[in-house]
Amino acid sequence: MQARSVPEREEEIQALVSVLGRAVGARCRVLDLGSGTGSTAERILALFPRAKVVAVDFDPVTRRIGETALGSWGGRLTWVDADLRRADWVERLPPGLFDAAVSTTALHWLEGRTLSRLYRDVAHRLRRGGILLNGDSLAFGPDAERLRRWARRASQEWDRDHRSPGESWTEWWRAALADPALAPEAALRAARFPPPTTARHGLVRTPDLSGHVRRVRAAGFREVEVVWSRWQGRLLAAVR
User: CATH number, domain at 149?
Assistant: First the structure.
């Protein structure tokens, strides 16, 4: 479903693990923000046999699917139920510093003030020299209307020519929420994300690329650059 909804996602994750390996090496402790079903965590654990990942997500349905499918990965994967929109999310993490914090197609749910606080929280939990990698839709600024229009057109063409088989976002969620095995998690999800919250996907006023860069620098990160991009889909890297 993710590959169909975000066709460039595989390229993005490949770039993320490539940078991660160069930045912190195979023996690393990684914080996965908005981990969902754990697809990024799974890739990291498979590629780096000495890595450990703490996966944070507030959606009980996707987290249950991830926990059931991946378990603890031999004690190397820890699941944390925490809402990144709340100031106390970081208190739910296990103690100690991380070598890296990663996120893929998740932080677009956060508005400006919440995102600023999140980046500060992450900076406090990363070791000196640690890295933040955020792969997401990081939009062009307000003065780039033609670029934004071209990007939309290119995205539509890429989606038409490279669409993966499988369910759409809507079809996948309809099936997941109807699965009797996930009934308790579906009920909890409805309580945590009542309408119109669940209908706002993609409509949150998240900052554009320059807004992310400004907030990351203000949080205390030194080197901040885009290290991979496909139009507005980008991987932003920042060194603590």
Answer: 3.40.50.150
